[in-house]
User: Fold this.
Amino acid sequence: MVLSSLLEGRFQQYFDEILSRSPVWLFVHIPKTAGSSLNGELVPILSPNHHIFIDYTKLDRQSFADLLDEAVGRFLDLAATRKYAYCTGHLTAEQVSRITVSVPNVRPMTLLRDPVARFVSDYRYQCSPMHTGHEQFRAAHPVIESYLDVPGEWNKAAAHLIPPELRDTGDAAKCVEHVLAQYSFVGIQESYALSLRLITTLAGAPRRPAVFKRVNTPTSETAIELSASTEALIRERNALDIGIYETLAERFRGIEEGLIGYLDRVDPLGEE
Assistant:
C-alpha cells in the first residue's frame, strides 16, 4: 500500500513508488477542506487536467448522483484518447473505483479536516453570499442545529471516500484500512502547507500556499458560537468521520518533522 510507505516514514520508497510511472492524480474533493485552494494550486502545474462537475441546470430533471455519474462517464471517454495528469471532483468511492479501473496509473488523493470544524464551515459557507442559494438555505436552516438534523450531511468525508456497504458498518478502523489501500495521498487541512508542499514536490513544482479560494471569513451574519451540547451532537452524528480523521491525522502529524527534513533535502524551497 503506497500510502502506508508515507505514513510509516519510508519517504524515499514512497516517492519511488509514486513516480515509478507517470501518475494521473485524482483529487477527491470533500467540501470545506481547503480543496478549492489546493485545486487552484495544482491546475497550473498538472496539465492536461479535467474538472468533473455536473450541469446544475438539469437538477430539475435528473438526480445529482445520476448527473455526476454522467460527468464521470464523459471524463472516461476523454481519458480513453488523452493522457491526463490531473482530474478532480466531488466524487464518491464508487466513482473513484470506476475511474481507477479504467484509467492507467490513477493516484487518488484527498484532504481531510477536523469533522466538527468542517461541518461548521460547511454551514457557514451555505449561509454566505458565496453560495448561490444562501437565502433559501438560511430560510430552511436559520440555525446550525437545524442543519444538524439532515442525515445526508453527516459523515461527509466517509460519504466521499468509503463504499456504502463498508460505511454502513460504522467500523472506522475498517474504513481507514480502505483508505490506506485505495489512496496514494491523504493530507490534512490543519497541515495544509505541508500537504501542499508534498503533492507539488511529487508534481515537480514544490511551492508554498499562494492560492486561497472560497475562504469564508466569519461575519456578523455567519459567525457561530457552538454550545457544548451542539458540539457534542455534531461529534455524535459524525462519529465515523471523526474516527477516520483522528486516526489518519495522528499518523500524518507523526511524520511531519521527518517529512519536512526529507523534502528540504530532495527539493528545498527558496526563501520567501
Summary: The longest helix spans residues 239-266.
